[in-house]
Specification:
Helix 1 (11-26) packs antiparallel against helix 2, helix 3 packs across helix 10 and helix 8 crosses helix 10 (373-392). The protein starts with 10 loop residues before the first helix and ends with a helix. It is of the alpha/beta class and 393 residues long. The chain has 2 domains: 11-186 and 304-392, Aminopeptidase, CATH 3.40.630; 189-301, Alpha-Beta Plaits (2-Layer Sandwich), CATH 3.30.70.360. Helix content is 33%, strand content 24%. The protein is built from 10 helices and 16 strands. Strand 3, helix 3 (109-125) and strand 4 form a beta-alpha-beta unit. The chain has an 8-stranded mixed sheet, with helices on both faces. Strands 10-12-8-13 form a 4-stranded antiparallel sheet. Strands 7-14 form a two-stranded antiparallel sheet. Residues 187-279 form the Peptidase M20 dimerisation domain.
Length: 393
């Protein structure tokens, strides 16, 4: 695996980065409960002379580093998410294995948060050598509602900044390589709930009632036509029914069924249309079957959209510090990330950090997922160099 040699981090900073990574991994905390992680981050920042860290969303942290050099300089936001997942870790080979039963960093957020720390420490030490501003956000609750990314937007933490940087480990990219792509990188993720209301009757006399189960079944079939017949093929829109609840006995016509699901699209413009059409489909199917529908939705993550010029610049940075053959491009993900709230407000890039190697080759959100320590420091130095390149551009 290629190791960067820029020496953008001091030995002490490298030690702090890995110390935080191990502590986060040993004591993972679920979304909206990252209290110990928040405390560790603030204490580490203060130990290196970074006072003035501010909190948000209860368990989030952000710190600003102002450059003291003269001349123009851009203002950049870098995000590292810090929450874990409700998965029991099955990696007995790790000396920093999770000590919390049923909770682990199965999506690499311990790596992301540690990279964010290293970026803050490096820029604080180099503050005499750049003009501009870096805001490092240690964001909680990427995995579950209420989302930290939404709070970043609502608290206006991106106001006055020129661009935003997000990052994520990628299990299909070899360790030591990095990737990015222009345009949509992830899909939006909006949640919906629909209750179909019929009329109870004896199962032997279905004509005397209105069967909510039949309405729900018709809806499940018909709603997919919103994707297949109303969305562009290259959008890759997805409507998923995740839960269905209804019925109390085998011989009763069911009077009420509740479904929940998600709606995904790579287009910010089509999000509203998709949600509206799912609601209209629910009401139309219910009416056709002599029932009623109650539809509600919750707006989740917007799609992450990468600015083409930031991707081109990232490719140049990777070539410069890691080697020309270390930049790769991968297809967009059908998943979602609340970094979409950032890219909805600022020109942004969400780049990938390769983590695939023998022993670390299972996917995210699995009990055997892992990322080698060898990946962390080179990725941090790359993030620092890329921020520098953008600030000075």
């Amino acid at each position: 695996m290629n190791v960067l040699t820029n020496n953008l981090l001091s030995k002490t900073e490298c030690d702090a980065v890995l110390k935080l990574r191990h502590a986060m991994h040993r004591e993972p905390e679920l979304s909206n409960n990252e209290w110990k992680t928040q405390k560790r981050i603030i204490e580490t920042l203060e130990a290196f002379g970074l006072a003035g860290a501010k909190t948000f969303h209860n368990t989030g942290v952000y710190i600003d580093i102002e450059g003291a050099a003269s001349g123009p300089g851009r203002s950049v936001v870098l995000r590292g998410d810090i929450d874990a997942l409700p998965i029991h870790e099955e990696r007995d080979d790790l000396p920093y294995k999770s000590r919390v039963p049923g909770v682990m960093h199965a999506c690499g957020h311990d790596v992301h948060g540690s990279i964010a720390l290293g970026t803050a420490l490096a820029f604080h030490r180099m503050r005499q050598n750049f003009s501009g501003k870096v805001r490092v956000i240690f964001q909680p609750a990427e995995e579950a509602e209420p989302l930290g990314g939404r709070s970043v937007a609502e608290a206006k933490l991106l106001d006055g900044f020129d661009l935003a940087i997000g990052l994520h480990v990628h299990t299909d990219i070899p360790a030591g390589s990095y990737g990015a792509r222009a345009g949509a990188v992830t899909k939006s993720s909006d949640q919906f709930e629909v209750e179909f209301i019929g009329t109870m009757a004896h199962g032997a006399k279905p004509n005397a009632g209105v069967d909510a189960i039949s309405i729900a079944a018709a809806f499940i079939n018909e709603v997919q036509k919103v994707v297949s017949r109303e969305m562009p093929v290259d959008d890759g829109a997805i409507i998923t029914i995740g839960t269905i609840h209804g019925g109390e006995a085998t011989n009763i016509i069911c009077p009420s069924v509740t479904l929940t699901g998600t709606i995904r699209t790579s287009s910010s413009e089509r999000r509203t249309l998709l949600v509206r059409r799912v609601g209209e489909m629910a009401e139309g199917v219910a009416s056709m079957h002599r029932g009623r529908a109650r539809f509600s939705s919750l707006a989740g993550e917007p799609p992450v959209i990468n600015a083409a010029d930031l991707v081109a610049r990232f490719r140049e940075t990777v070539s410069k510090v890691a080697g020309k053959d270390k930049f790769v491009e991968r297809p967009a993900s059908s998943g979602s990330d609340d970094f979409g709230y950032y890219s909805d407000l600022l020109p942004s890039i969400y780049f990938w950090i390769g983590s695939q190697e023998p022993g670390n080759d299972t996917g995210v959100h699995t009990p055997t997922f892992g990322v080698s320590d060898k990946v962390v420091i080179p990725a941090t130095e790359l993030a620092v160099q890329y921020c520098l390149d953008l600030i000075r551009e």
